[in-house]
Structures are given as structure tokens and as C-alpha cells.
């Protein structure tokens, strides 16, 4: 069986593919509306298409007969709007016949050679790069199929001909075709007694003011009304002069890591997907020290003296905790995006992805998912938006490589964080992570070139 599937390696996945529509302003607008992307580079007379939108131009439309019924799942895998090969259809059909009837995208790697502009026509050819052996995954037993697509473009209005189309991008895409596991995993981590939640804080008369502040987005400490000594954690009396008089104050949220430990030990169910993680003693500018988590960078990179800023993490519907994230020009501020049904469906429509698991809850459940979930094109688009929101409209994305982890379901909240890992003049490489309360949804490496400004100029 392995030889049967691997024999498809090197065969064409699409030959002479041609996008259904030229690059156009309405599709760009719909994409930006779905992603919440207000980048001015995508509007006006000199507009370019969002680079992360690349795959949308090659997606099959809803009316394409090859994406009806059982084969629609492959539509979400980046099938060509036209030109998809018999070899690729045959591979997908053979996988279906062996019980690998469900599909999910897992990885996407794009390199942008030059911007796409309204009016251009997109052409492409694809190759089946590899078909893996059987792999046991959290979703079930399956096989990974990797394709590589080379895209070209030409401008009919400018008198250019198809044979003059210039390379614009390369796109490597991986899907998992799998047999759903017997037990459907719910949107929460499930334990013997139901959903596993983070431990609840014990709120009493001494610390109630602190938790009231957290609910209002503040980290509050106490200041003695007699000697003005700040204190944290909250206590009924001053540990400097013994006075029982005090007033609450909100910390500005700026501090440094005074000390830390990294937790590697196997974790309870509510903490899975977070190990290893850093627990730090943070010294705030006001002179008090707070124990909390440092998020937004690998735990191994936390260090004494690291500048941090206060943030708040929503663990579930009832619990929000104060945390800290790295501060400074090399760390991007976090971006929180509520995952609504509207976002999931709008992102799928804007990217021409009519895979049923992204809009039909009943069919999603039948294929092993607890609900509809965000497609990889939307995840890719949100990563692009996050980076360009920070770098500004004059920055040019040159590549995004993204790997999906836990699904993003309705009711989740995605928190994106990022950091600069390499600098070469105006060329930067960033590590970006989008997390939900269950763990990392998207892990990405983004490459970009800055315009005639520096990162520090950005708001």
C-alpha cells in the first residue's frame, strides 16, 4: 500500500492552472473585511493584493463539479480552480477508498517574489512532492500529502500575453487525509469529571480588591497611608510600619524579570499544550514584585532583567489572569481576535474555501470535529495582518511559513504574539504564535522587508 501511494510522488497536481478571476478589488476588499485588515497598501489606485491571500486566487469555486460531494474536502486543500491533474484526483480517490475520507490542512509555506496587482491573471502548475506513510495523529490514522505550486502572473490590460507571465510566488501545502478517531474530541480538554479548567483563585476579604482590579483590566497593589510603602501581595497591615491604613493603586504595568523558574514537569489536563512554561518574579516600576507567567516567547529565552509589560490572559469564560509579555522593539504587542462563527465562515468564503467543516456544524461533527473550525487560509491571513499592523503599510511581506496546531473553534479567542528573530538591515524574520486556551493554534515564521521607516517609528 505504501508503494502505491508513494508512486504519486513527482507527478503533477495541476497543469496549466488558470485562476477563475483576475486579481480584483472586490475580492481583496472582501478578504480584508473578513480578516479585519485595514492596511492602506491594499486600497487605492496603487493597491496590491494581500500577500497572504495568495492561495485564494487558485481555489476552486463552489460551482466546480470536482468539489461536490465527497471530493469537496480536497477543495480546501488548495486544489486548482482549473487544470487539476488526473493524477491528483486519482490520489485523493485512492485515499478515500482506503478510508482516509476526512481532510485537514496542516502546513503552508509561501514565498512572495513580487506583489500581485488588480488586473493581473494568475497561472500556476503544481507537483505532488510527497505522500507519507501511515501516521497516527490526534485526529486519527492518516497520510500527509504535500504539493508545491509555482505561480506566475501577467497583465492583459497592459498587453501582456500568457507566455510572458512572470514568476510571482511559490506555495508549498500539506494536508492530512485521515480516518477519524473513534472518539470525537470536544472543544475543551476533557477529563474524567468533565472539562478540565484552570484552578480557581481563592477570593477573600483581604484580596478581593486585587481580583476586582483584574476584572477591570488593572493590576492593583496597596500603598500604606501612613508611610507610603507599596506592598504586594495584599495584606491587612503594612509590613513596614504596621499601620492598617492603605489605599489601592493601579500599577503602570512596566517591569523587569527579577527571577524565574521554568516548569518542565508533566502537567495536569488544564495546562496541556503549555509546557515548558516560565514562572517569573516580576519587579514593577512601583517597587513591588509579582509572581506571574511570562508569555510571548519560548520559556528558554526568559532571562533575569528582561523588560516586560503587563497583559491579561483569558483562560476561560470565567477566569482572567494577569501575565507579562516581553517589552521592546523586538517584541510585537499582542493582538486578540475573538473567534466567532462569522469570522470562520467569512474567512472561508473570502478565500473561496467551501470545505464543509468550515461552515456546516453537522457535517463537521460527522467528520470527527466537535464544531466548524477556522481554515488555514484565514489563519495565514490573520498572521499577515498581525505583522503588517505592526510593521506598517510600507513593509512588504516576502514569505510566511505556518503550521497549525489545535483547531480554532467558535467561542475561542486567538491571541497573537511575535518577536524579531533576525535582522539584516531592512529585512526581518519574525516568529509568530497564535494561541487559544487549549494551546498553539498557529506557529509561523514570517519574513518581511521594511519600507523607508524603522520599526521604532511604528505606533
**Unreliable spans:** 65-81, 183-194, 453-459
Structural class: alpha+beta
Q: Could you say how many structural domains there are in total?
A: 3
Approximately how much helix is present in the residues? 10-25%
- State the CATH class of the largest domain: Alpha Beta
The CATH topology of the largest domain is what?
A: Thiol Ester Dehydrase, Chain A
Overall form: elongated
Major pleated sheet: 11 strands, antiparallel
- CATH architectural arrangement of the largest domain: Roll
Q: DSSP helix count?
A: 8
Mean pLDDT: 87
Strand content range: 35-45%
Keywords, please?
459 residues, alpha+beta, Thiol Ester Dehydrase, Chain A, OB fold (Dihydrolipoamide Acetyltransferase, E2P), 3 domains, eleven-stranded antiparallel β-sheet, five-stranded antiparallel β-sheet, 8 helices, disordered C terminus
Task: Give a written overview of the molecule.
The protein is of the alpha+beta class. The protein folds into three domains: 2-182 and 335-457, Hotdog Thioesterase (Thiol Ester Dehydrase, Chain A, Roll); 199-250, no CATH class; 253-328, OB fold (Dihydrolipoamide Acetyltransferase, E2P), CATH 2.40.50. The protein is 16% helix and 37% strand. The chain contains eight helices and 21 strands. It has helices at 2-6, 25-35, 72-75, 86-97, 208-215, 341-350, 361-366, 376-391, and strands at residues 12-18, 102-112, 120-131, 135-136, 140-155, 166-180, 190-191, 194-195, 220-224, 230-231, 246-250, 254-263, 277-284, 289-294, 307-314, 320-326, 331-338, 396-404, 413-424, 427-436, 439-449. Strands 1, 2, 3, 4, 5, 6, 17, 18, 19, 20 and 21 form an eleven-stranded antiparallel beta sheet that branches. A five-stranded antiparallel beta sheet has the order 14-13-12-15-16, with no helix packed on it. A hairpin with a 4-residue loop joins β13 (277-284) and β14. Mean pLDDT is 87; it is low at 65-81, 183-194 and 453-459.
Amino acid at each position: 500500500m505504501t508503494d502505491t501511494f508513494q508512486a504519486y510522488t513527482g507527478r503533477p497536481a495541476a497543469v496549466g492552472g488558470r485562476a477563475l478571476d483576475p486579481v480584483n478589488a472586490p475580492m481583496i476588499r472582501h478578504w480584508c473585511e473578513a480578516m479585519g485588515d485595514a492596511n492602506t497598501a491594499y486600497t487605492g489606485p496603487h493597491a496590491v493584493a494581500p500577500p497572504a491571500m495568495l492561495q485564494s486566487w487558485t481555489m476552486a469555486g463552489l460551482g466546480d463539479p470536482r468539489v461536490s460531494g465527497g471530493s469537496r474536502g480536497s477543495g480546501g486543500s488548495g486544489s486548482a480552480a482549473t487544470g487539476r491533474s488526473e493524477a491528483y484526483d486519482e490520489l485523493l480517490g485512492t485515499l478515500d477508498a482506503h478510508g482516509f475520507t476526512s481532510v485537514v490542512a496542516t502546513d503552508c509555506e509561501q514565498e512572495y517574489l513580487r506583489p500581485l496587482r488588480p488586473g493581473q491573471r494568475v497561472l500556476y502548475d503544481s507537483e505532488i512532492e510527497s505522500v507519507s506513510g501511515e501516521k497516527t495523529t490526534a485526529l486519527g490514522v492518516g497520510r500527509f500529502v504535500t504539493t508545491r505550486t509555482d505561480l506566475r502572473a501577467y497583465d492583459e490590460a497592459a498587453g501582456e500575453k500568457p507566455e510572458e507571465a512572470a514568476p510571482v510566488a511559490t506555495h508549498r501545502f500539506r494536508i492530512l487525509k485521515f480516518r477519524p478517531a473513534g472518539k470525537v474530541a470536544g472543544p475543551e480538554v476533557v477529563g474524567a469529571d468533565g472539562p478540565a479548567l484552570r484552578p480557581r483563585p481563592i477570593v477573600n476579604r483581604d484580596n478581593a480588591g486585587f481580583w476586582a482590579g483584574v476584572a477591570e483590566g488593572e493590576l492593583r497593589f496597596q500603598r500604606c497611608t501612613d508611610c507610603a510603602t507599596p506592598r504586594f501581595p495584599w495584606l491587612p497591615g503594612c509590613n513596614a510600619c504596621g499601620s492598617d491604613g492603605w489605599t489601592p493603586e493601579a500599577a503602570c504595568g512596566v517591569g523587569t524579570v527579577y527571577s524565574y523558574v521554568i516548569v518542565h514537569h508533566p502537567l495536569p489536563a488544564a495546562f496541556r499544550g503549555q509546557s515548558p512554561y516560565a514562572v517569573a518574579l516580576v519587579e514593577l516600576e512601583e517597587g513591588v514584585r509579582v509572581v506571574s507567567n511570562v508569555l510571548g516567547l519560548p520559556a528558554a529565552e526568559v532571562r533575569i532583567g528582561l523588560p516586560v509589560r503587563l497583559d491579561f490572559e483569558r483562560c476561560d469564560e470565567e477566569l482572567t489572569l494577569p501575565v507579562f509579555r516581553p517589552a521592546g522593539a523586538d517584541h510585537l504587542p499582542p493582538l486578540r481576535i475573538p473567534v466567532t462563527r462569522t469570522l470562520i465562515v467569512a474567512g472561508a468564503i473570502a478565500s473561496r474555501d467551501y470545505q464543509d467543516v468550515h461552515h456546516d456544524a453537522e457535517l463537521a461533527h460527522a467528520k470527527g470535529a466537535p464544531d466548524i473550525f477556522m481554515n488555514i487560509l484565514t489563519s495565514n491571513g490573520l498572521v499577515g495582518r498581525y505583522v503588517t499592523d505592526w510593521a506598517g503599510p510600507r513593509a512588504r511581506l516576502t514569505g510566511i511559513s505556518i503550521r497549525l496546531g489545535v483547531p480554532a473553534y467558535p467561542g475561542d479567542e486567538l491571541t497573537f504574539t511575535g518577536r524579531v528573530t533576525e535582522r539584516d538591515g531592512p529585512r526581518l524574520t519574525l516568529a509568530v504564535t497564535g494561541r487559544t486556551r487549549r494551546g498553539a493554534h498557529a506557529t509561523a515564521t514570517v519574513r518581511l522587508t521594511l519600507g523607508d521607516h524603522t520599526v521604532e517609528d511604528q505606533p
